[in-house]
């Protein structure tokens, strides 16, 4: 009998939950400039964390799917032989990112790797070629579902970032903020 794994926590956990909470942006127009900047940086950090986690997850999903395809097509090459092709994202569609310039790094890479590994607790993905098809298919389903949820949360965080950046831009455009003060703050 197959055991049912507990549902993993949502990607990004409580920090992302807070950003996506309905009231998070309430009253942003009246908050002090410094607070809006802090909120934007916080959202930017969580977006970077989610993007990093998504890349980890997609790498595993690509490998699992390619191994299943290799088996179905009776491809004589080993998974190791196919890794350069997999890593080059051959066959993947165009990128759907928003082309954001990232100025921060993931905060805790080990935590995100643990989260991704926890998505398939009963399937050890360190030996993909040795796993039975049923385990690989279960892992692929779990990873794909998590990727969809993670991507949705990431888009939500990006919308928060955009709202906060828009508010900052509005203040500069309308003369409510001083560029000289910003540069002085940044220089500290």
From TrEMBL:
Report the residue ranges that make up the RsiG-like domain in this protein: 25-87, 124-182
User: Bias regions of kind Pro residues — which residues?
Assistant: 1-13
| Annotated segments matching region Disordered | 1-20
The protein, known as: Aerial mycelium formation protein
Query: Whose protein is this, by species?
Result: Geodermatophilus maliterrae
Give the lineage.
Answer: Bacteria, Bacillati, Actinomycetota, Actinomycetes, Geodermatophilales
